[in-house]
Amino acid sequence: MRKGLALSALLAVAGVAFATPAFAYTSPGSPSGYVNDFAQVLSAGKTQELDARLAAFEQATSNEITVVTVPSMDGDYIENYAAKLFEEWGIGKKNTDNGVLLLLALEERKLRIEVGYGLEASSRMK
After folding, report:
1. Do residues 26 and 74 touch, judged by C-beta distance below 8 A?
2. Which residues of the chain have pLDDT under 50?
3. How do 99-105 and 110-115 pair as beta strands?
4. DSSP state of 71
């Protein structure tokens, strides 16, 4: 009798695990510079100023920082959304993986900083 209950409980848990919806990443669009304000929260002047500063930062360090605002992640998790966007856009140099993504999702009120592996290693050495 106990084996039957345990098996039923296990199958119920497995059913819930398989029934959990997987959120599919939806791209916000193509990048148009270092600052991509898809949520339209920044003024044109502020976007241009940040873009110029981030371009100068890349010139000085070769590290690439991209800022992205999205109105919503459509139910996705911030960790997944940021990782997929980082990969899709290829942020950072391919041979050094030295990119940083600053993602702001307004509806969810979430912020994520995604860092390329090349920068993770150098920050651990310090």
Report:
1. yes
2. 16-17, 19-20
3. antiparallel
4. S
